[in-house]
Specification:
The complex is a heterodimer of chains A (406) and B (270).
Chain A (H helix, E strand, L loop, with lengths): L15 E2 L2 E5 L5 H15 L2 H15 L5 E3 L1 H7 L3 E6 L9 H14 L4 E6 L3 H13 L2 E7 H6 L1 H9 L3 E5 L6 H14 L4 E3 L10 H9 L1 H14 L5 E6 L3 H7 L9 E7 L11 H4 L1 E5 L1 E6 L24 H9 L3 E5 L1 H15 L5 H14 L7 E6 L7 H8 L8
Parallel strand pairs in A: 4-14, 5-6, 5-8, 6-7, 9-10, 9-14, 10-13
Antiparallel strand pairs in A: 1-2, 2-12, 3-4, 11-12
Helix pairs in contact in A: 2-4, 4-5, 4-9, 5-7, 9-11, 10-11, 14-15
Chain B lengths: L2 H11 L4 E7 L5 H14 L3 E5 L10 H12 L4 H12 L7 E5 L1 H7 L1 H11 L3 E4 L11 H6 L3 E2 L2 E2 L8 H5 L6 E4 L12 H12 L6 E4 L5 H10 L2 E4 L1 H12 L4 H18 L3
Parallel strand pairs in B: 1-2, 1-9, 2-3, 3-4, 4-5, 6-7, 7-8, 8-9
Helix pairs in contact in B: 2-4, 2-12, 4-6, 10-12, 11-12
Classes of the chains: A alpha/beta (406), B alpha/beta (270).
Chain lengths: 406, 270
Amino acid sequence: MTSLNTYRAGPDERGHFGIFGGRYVAETLMPLILSVEQAYHQAKDDPAFQAEFRSWLKQYVGRPNPLYFAPRLTATWGGAKIFLKREDLNHTGAHKINNCIGQILLAQRMGKKRIIAETGAGQHGVATATVCALFGLKCVIYMGATDIERQAPNVYRMKLLGAEVRPVTSGAATLKDAMNDALRDWVTNVADTYYLIGTVAGPHPFPAMVRDFQSVIGEEVRAQMLEAEGRLPDSLVACIGGGSNAMGLFHPFLDEPGIRIIGVEAGGHGLDKLHAASLTGGRPGVLHGNRTYLLQDADGQIQEAHSISAGLDYPGIGPEHSWLHDTGRVEYVWVTDDEALAAFQQCTRLEGIIPALESSHAMAHAAKIAGSLPQDHLMVLNLSGRGDKDVNTVARALGDDFGGSL
Amino acid sequence: MSRLAARFTKLAAENRAALVTYSMAFDPDRAASQELLNGLPAAGADIIEFGMPFTDPMADGPAIQYAAQRALASGGTLKGCLEMVAEFRLTDTETPIILMGYYNPVYSWGPEKFCADAGRAGIDGLILVDLPPEEADELLPHCWANDIDFIFLTTPTSDDARLPVIVGNASGFVYYVSIAGITGTASASASAIGDAVTRIRRHTSLPVCVGFGIKTPEQAAEVARLADGAVVGSAIVAAAFDAKGKGENPARAALALVRELAAGVRGARG
């Protein structure tokens, strides 16, 4: 493993984390991307902007949310002390809202009147529609037709919030294709539109900006763990699609050498079948504005991902994760659909908390390793979202009749 | 002199603009797209853009998106694209060919090896929509080492501060994307195109070719009066596709349109 003095200095001025990241976008978008970068730099250094961001997080999102000690998961897994970072308790039910508050404030500073976004599970779409309602901005959400079908409750929530949900039918009609159409919209409406990207991916400055807005997760965990246990955690575990909840938890701890950090990708049906584990099963390539690990064939054509969790169903990953993978600072592993489904049920029955299928991936990996760790090992699991949106999918996977007998 | 420079010198002597055509390799299949490619010079194409299919064509409208899907479904690969150009070169050594597409297949091949292989196949230029000047430095030296012009795109959002950044490393010609948008959709007005071309020419002495939204011989003629070349893509792709749907020969239908476009461009400066 390469040992660096700091893992928190990236990206460089061109938006690169090692060979990853960058700004691989159509020329039409370049001036706008550069102006987003400039606006973000000014906002980042502006105490008034930061104060406003923190105020909305407190008053509207409900932060800080708890770092909850999970006694029955701890007892059942029989090793490490398990703490759940309760992003599921945020307004709108997931970590996505943290980033949306930050970016909507930036879009306002830039004078943009129309907001577009892509969504997979619908959590980012709901969060974007929410902040657009809050600030009175027009909102268009691109969502794959496949995802619209499996995330129907979130689609209706977005409509109630006043957003227009545009179904995307190209490709596999999931998150990747929604991102293509959002980019096509942006290039066409470049003057008045802001693209509110939902994860730590896309062209610079989005990976760094989204990470910064999500870092409130890790900053709170640090303070909360010090208060609860008088010391920092020993390990951090989070699920990764694009990787924003994971980056938000990990980034404040990257330079703490004693802390084991684990990102959990979606292994779908297994790595020899359809999956969404870009780091384990992919190789570096260029898509959606950045260089990163991608699922692709020998000719550089992008492959369809699969995960039971719509939010992880993406053939790429944020570029900073690719860099952390290659430097060895973060361990990246994967779990299957079935393992995530089992963890979903276990958490629900043992803690009375229905986790998102995305977060259930992190939980499934924690379940595998917690028992072999000592009882004074402090493990933080990012419970990135609540699972209400997934009950249809889970019922179908378990063979239950959701409509009638439940 | 490169094929592109030679072609523009010849066109200048004839006092006319170039008709630049775009068609997609392997759409609807390899044989039909080779027939179309081979027939383009005789139909009046002065410069050929040859589309490399990609799964995620983010800058393209529906016509070229679906063309890429058809091309991939019929077995389209980057290696196949180079083989088709090599075959074209057996009968035509003068018409410049530019490969157009997205960066990932090229990056996957390896920029250095790809440029060497492309040069050997007889390729004269590259347009990679998602490789702006900020990221092009890892590819440019390999292009130049193999006498391949890297064609940079300018757009309605390219202001006087941005243009020098774009044209600084340009060679071959400068492409003006005449609308803020995707291929095959809206069309810009003649006055907007004229103003933009005038502005771009203040920053470069390279020829300026205009594309996006040019569909008819009349539009091509109008652009040919304002710029050094008119690029037509989606309309040619659509003509081939429509013909196939009617059970007709797609290459012949597309070439018929190219002949009309060429007549428009050649008559433009009367």
